[in-house]
Amino acid sequence: METFRGIVRPNEIDQMGHMNVAYYVDKFDHGSWGFFGEIGMDAAWMVEHHRGMMAVDQHIKYRAELVAGDRVIVTTDVLGLTEKTIRILHTMTNIGTGNVAATAEMVAVFVDLDNRSGLPLPPDVRAVVERLRDTK
Question: How many domains does the chain have?
Answer without folding.
Answer: 1
